[in-house]
Amino acid sequence: MVTNPSNAPDSYYVIPEIGEIAVLFADNFETDQGWAVENSDYLTNGSWERGTPQGGGVRGDPPTDADGSGQCYVTGNGLEGQDHDVDGGTTTLISPVMDATEADAEISYYRWYNNSFGINPHEDIFYVDVSDDGGSSWVNLETLGPDGPYVDGGWFHKAFLIADIAGISNTAQFRIRFIASDEGSPSVVEAGVDGVELEASYCEDPECPQDVNQDGLVDIDDLFDVLAHWAEGPGAYDINNDGVVDIDDVFEVLANWGPCP
Predict the structure, then answer these.
(1) Is this structure's pTM higher than 0.70?
(2) Which terminus of the chain has a smaller tally of CB atoms within 10 A, N or C?
Protein backbone atom coordinates (compact mmCIF):
# COMPACT_ATOMS: atom_id res chain seq x y z
CA MET A 1 0.00 0.00 0.00
CA VAL A 2 1.24 3.47 -0.92
CA THR A 3 -0.11 6.67 0.63
CA ASN A 4 0.41 10.24 -0.48
CA PRO A 5 1.19 12.19 1.68
CA SER A 6 3.24 9.49 3.39
CA ASN A 7 1.31 9.68 6.68
CA ALA A 8 -2.20 10.08 5.22
CA PRO A 9 -4.92 10.30 6.47
CA ASP A 10 -3.30 12.13 9.41
CA SER A 11 -1.93 14.61 6.86
CA TYR A 12 -3.63 15.53 3.62
CA TYR A 13 -3.50 17.97 0.74
CA VAL A 14 -5.81 20.97 0.86
CA ILE A 15 -7.10 23.06 -2.02
CA PRO A 16 -7.21 26.63 -0.70
CA GLU A 17 -10.18 28.86 -1.26
CA ILE A 18 -10.02 31.04 -4.34
CA GLY A 19 -9.14 34.51 -3.15
CA GLU A 20 -6.50 36.31 -1.14
CA ILE A 21 -4.77 34.84 1.89
CA ALA A 22 -4.01 37.27 4.69
CA VAL A 23 -1.32 36.12 7.09
CA LEU A 24 -2.34 37.54 10.45
CA PHE A 25 0.47 35.92 12.42
CA ALA A 26 3.30 33.57 11.45
CA ASP A 27 6.17 32.20 13.51
CA ASN A 28 8.81 29.72 12.35
CA PHE A 29 10.71 30.39 15.59
CA GLU A 30 13.79 31.82 13.91
CA THR A 31 13.29 34.98 16.01
CA ASP A 32 11.71 35.69 19.38
CA GLN A 33 8.14 36.85 18.82
CA GLY A 34 7.12 36.89 22.46
CA TRP A 35 6.21 33.35 23.44
CA ALA A 36 6.13 32.63 27.17
CA VAL A 37 7.13 29.47 29.05
CA GLU A 38 5.52 28.58 32.37
CA ASN A 39 6.63 25.57 34.41
CA SER A 40 5.04 23.88 37.39
CA ASP A 41 6.91 24.06 40.72
CA TYR A 42 7.95 20.40 40.58
CA LEU A 43 9.31 20.35 37.04
CA THR A 44 12.94 19.17 37.21
CA ASN A 45 13.76 18.86 33.53
CA GLY A 46 12.45 19.38 30.01
CA SER A 47 11.27 23.00 29.94
CA TRP A 48 10.26 24.34 26.51
CA GLU A 49 13.26 25.77 24.63
CA ARG A 50 13.55 27.51 21.26
CA GLY A 51 16.40 26.35 19.03
CA THR A 52 17.67 23.79 16.53
CA PRO A 53 16.87 20.26 17.79
CA GLN A 54 20.00 18.67 19.28
CA GLY A 55 18.83 15.27 20.52
CA GLY A 56 18.99 13.35 17.27
CA GLY A 57 15.66 11.61 17.84
CA VAL A 58 17.13 8.67 19.77
CA ARG A 59 14.78 9.04 22.78
CA GLY A 60 11.60 10.14 21.03
CA ASP A 61 12.58 13.79 20.53
CA PRO A 62 12.31 15.59 17.18
CA PRO A 63 15.54 15.14 15.16
CA THR A 64 14.74 18.23 13.05
CA ASP A 65 12.26 21.06 12.99
CA ALA A 66 9.02 20.68 11.00
CA ASP A 67 8.99 23.51 8.46
CA GLY A 68 12.64 23.43 7.38
CA SER A 69 13.54 26.86 8.76
CA GLY A 70 15.94 25.30 11.27
CA GLN A 71 14.48 26.16 14.66
CA CYS A 72 11.39 25.18 16.63
CA TYR A 73 10.31 24.80 20.25
CA VAL A 74 11.21 21.50 21.91
CA THR A 75 11.06 20.20 25.46
CA GLY A 76 14.57 20.12 26.89
CA ASN A 77 16.87 20.72 23.92
CA GLY A 78 19.85 18.65 25.08
CA LEU A 79 22.49 16.77 23.13
CA GLU A 80 21.98 13.20 21.92
CA GLY A 81 22.03 10.69 24.76
CA GLN A 82 21.41 13.26 27.49
CA ASP A 83 18.43 13.06 29.84
CA HIS A 84 16.53 16.15 28.67
CA ASP A 85 12.90 15.01 28.49
CA VAL A 86 10.05 16.36 30.64
CA ASP A 87 10.33 15.19 34.25
CA GLY A 88 8.44 15.85 37.46
CA GLY A 89 5.72 18.23 36.32
CA THR A 90 4.37 20.31 33.42
CA THR A 91 5.87 22.82 31.02
CA THR A 92 3.57 25.19 29.11
CA LEU A 93 4.36 27.15 25.93
CA ILE A 94 2.06 30.18 25.50
CA SER A 95 1.74 32.28 22.35
CA PRO A 96 1.66 36.06 22.22
CA VAL A 97 -1.77 37.64 21.73
CA MET A 98 -3.03 37.41 18.14
CA ASP A 99 -5.80 39.31 16.34
CA ALA A 100 -8.31 36.70 15.14
CA THR A 101 -11.24 39.02 14.49
CA GLU A 102 -11.50 37.97 10.83
CA ALA A 103 -14.57 35.73 10.52
CA ASP A 104 -12.68 32.94 8.72
CA ALA A 105 -9.43 33.12 10.70
CA GLU A 106 -7.69 29.74 10.92
CA ILE A 107 -5.03 28.66 13.39
CA SER A 108 -2.50 26.05 12.24
CA TYR A 109 0.68 24.51 13.63
CA TYR A 110 2.98 21.51 13.56
CA ARG A 111 3.18 19.41 16.72
CA TRP A 112 5.30 16.51 17.90
CA TYR A 113 4.58 14.30 20.88
CA ASN A 114 6.18 11.08 22.11
CA ASN A 115 5.51 9.31 25.41
CA SER A 116 6.41 5.79 24.23
CA PHE A 117 9.98 5.56 25.61
CA GLY A 118 11.13 4.62 29.11
CA ILE A 119 10.00 2.05 31.67
CA ASN A 120 6.48 3.52 31.99
CA PRO A 121 5.36 4.37 28.44
CA HIS A 122 1.94 5.69 27.42
CA GLU A 123 1.01 7.23 30.78
CA ASP A 124 1.21 10.98 30.05
CA ILE A 125 -0.90 13.53 28.17
CA PHE A 126 -0.21 16.47 25.86
CA TYR A 127 -2.71 19.34 25.68
CA VAL A 128 -3.34 22.08 23.13
CA ASP A 129 -5.62 24.86 24.43
CA VAL A 130 -6.89 28.13 23.00
CA SER A 131 -8.18 31.36 24.52
CA ASP A 132 -10.19 34.30 23.20
CA ASP A 133 -9.62 36.57 26.21
CA GLY A 134 -5.84 36.86 26.27
CA GLY A 135 -5.34 33.80 28.44
CA SER A 136 -7.73 34.53 31.29
CA SER A 137 -9.62 31.35 30.38
CA TRP A 138 -8.81 28.41 28.13
CA VAL A 139 -10.68 25.88 25.99
CA ASN A 140 -9.16 22.53 25.08
CA LEU A 141 -8.48 22.09 21.37
CA GLU A 142 -6.58 18.79 21.33
CA THR A 143 -5.70 16.12 23.88
CA LEU A 144 -3.05 13.55 22.96
CA GLY A 145 -2.39 10.43 25.03
CA PRO A 146 -1.94 8.57 27.10
CA ASP A 147 -2.06 6.25 24.09
CA GLY A 148 -3.41 6.50 20.55
CA PRO A 149 -2.12 7.42 17.08
CA TYR A 150 -0.16 10.58 17.99
CA VAL A 151 2.03 9.48 20.90
CA ASP A 152 4.94 7.89 19.03
CA GLY A 153 6.54 11.01 17.60
CA GLY A 154 6.36 12.53 14.13
CA TRP A 155 5.51 16.03 13.01
CA PHE A 156 1.79 16.48 12.31
CA HIS A 157 0.26 19.60 10.79
CA LYS A 158 -3.09 20.64 12.25
CA ALA A 159 -5.44 23.47 11.25
CA PHE A 160 -8.68 24.69 12.85
CA LEU A 161 -11.19 27.34 11.83
CA ILE A 162 -11.55 29.44 14.96
CA ALA A 163 -15.25 30.00 14.39
CA ASP A 164 -15.74 26.21 14.58
CA ILE A 165 -14.09 25.83 17.99
CA ALA A 166 -16.82 25.44 20.60
CA GLY A 167 -16.56 28.09 23.30
CA ILE A 168 -14.22 30.36 21.32
CA SER A 169 -15.09 33.59 19.50
CA ASN A 170 -13.19 35.58 16.90
CA THR A 171 -11.52 38.26 18.99
CA ALA A 172 -8.35 40.34 19.02
CA GLN A 173 -7.23 38.50 22.19
CA PHE A 174 -6.62 35.03 20.75
CA ARG A 175 -3.85 32.85 22.19
CA ILE A 176 -2.79 29.21 21.94
CA ARG A 177 -0.77 27.11 24.39
CA PHE A 178 0.92 23.69 24.40
CA ILE A 179 1.29 21.69 27.62
CA ALA A 180 3.60 18.69 28.05
CA SER A 181 3.74 16.83 31.36
CA ASP A 182 5.30 13.93 33.22
CA GLU A 183 3.44 13.79 36.51
CA GLY A 184 3.04 10.08 37.25
CA SER A 185 5.55 7.27 37.13
CA PRO A 186 8.89 8.27 35.60
CA SER A 187 8.83 8.07 31.81
CA VAL A 188 10.31 9.73 28.74
CA VAL A 189 8.13 12.57 27.41
CA GLU A 190 9.22 14.67 24.42
CA ALA A 191 7.27 17.35 22.55
CA GLY A 192 7.78 19.96 19.84
CA VAL A 193 5.93 22.86 18.22
CA ASP A 194 6.72 24.62 14.94
CA GLY A 195 5.24 26.72 12.15
CA VAL A 196 2.41 28.40 14.03
CA GLU A 197 0.25 30.53 11.71
CA LEU A 198 -2.97 32.48 11.88
CA GLU A 199 -4.46 33.15 8.44
CA ALA A 200 -7.67 34.38 6.88
CA SER A 201 -8.89 34.11 3.30
CA TYR A 202 -11.17 36.54 1.58
CA CYS A 203 -12.55 37.28 -1.85
CA GLU A 204 -12.95 40.74 -3.27
CA ASP A 205 -15.27 41.73 -6.07
CA PRO A 206 -13.30 42.91 -9.09
CA GLU A 207 -13.15 46.68 -9.38
CA CYS A 208 -14.11 46.45 -13.05
CA PRO A 209 -16.43 43.41 -13.51
CA GLN A 210 -17.12 44.34 -17.15
CA ASP A 211 -13.48 43.50 -17.89
CA VAL A 212 -14.24 39.77 -17.78
CA ASN A 213 -10.80 38.72 -19.09
CA GLN A 214 -9.12 41.03 -16.55
CA ASP A 215 -6.69 42.63 -19.01
CA GLY A 216 -7.42 46.15 -17.75
CA LEU A 217 -9.57 47.13 -20.74
CA VAL A 218 -13.27 46.69 -21.53
CA ASP A 219 -13.25 46.00 -25.24
CA ILE A 220 -14.33 43.67 -28.03
CA ASP A 221 -12.64 40.67 -26.38
CA ASP A 222 -14.87 41.05 -23.31
CA LEU A 223 -17.93 41.40 -25.52
CA PHE A 224 -17.05 38.20 -27.38
CA ASP A 225 -16.46 36.41 -24.04
CA VAL A 226 -19.91 37.38 -22.80
CA LEU A 227 -21.55 36.29 -26.06
CA ALA A 228 -19.67 32.98 -25.93
CA HIS A 229 -21.25 32.25 -22.53
CA TRP A 230 -24.74 33.34 -23.49
CA ALA A 231 -27.55 31.92 -21.32
CA GLU A 232 -25.16 30.49 -18.76
CA GLY A 233 -25.90 30.84 -15.07
CA PRO A 234 -24.10 32.81 -12.36
CA GLY A 235 -20.39 33.44 -12.82
CA ALA A 236 -17.88 35.98 -14.07
CA TYR A 237 -19.83 36.53 -17.29
CA ASP A 238 -23.07 37.31 -15.46
CA ILE A 239 -21.84 40.84 -14.91
CA ASN A 240 -24.97 42.25 -13.27
CA ASN A 241 -25.40 39.16 -11.07
CA ASP A 242 -29.00 38.48 -12.06
CA GLY A 243 -28.39 34.75 -12.51
CA VAL A 244 -28.07 34.52 -16.29
CA VAL A 245 -25.78 35.82 -19.04
CA ASP A 246 -28.05 37.86 -21.36
CA ILE A 247 -28.48 41.16 -23.17
CA ASP A 248 -28.21 43.13 -19.94
CA ASP A 249 -24.64 41.90 -19.52
CA VAL A 250 -23.87 42.96 -23.08
CA PHE A 251 -25.17 46.43 -22.23
CA GLU A 252 -22.90 46.45 -19.14
CA VAL A 253 -19.87 45.87 -21.37
CA LEU A 254 -20.90 48.53 -23.90
CA ALA A 255 -21.67 51.09 -21.19
CA ASN A 256 -18.23 50.71 -19.66
CA TRP A 257 -16.21 50.54 -22.87
CA GLY A 258 -12.57 51.59 -22.53
CA PRO A 259 -9.88 51.39 -19.83
CA CYS A 260 -10.92 50.21 -16.39
CA PRO A 261 -10.99 52.97 -13.78
Answers:
(1) yes
(2) N
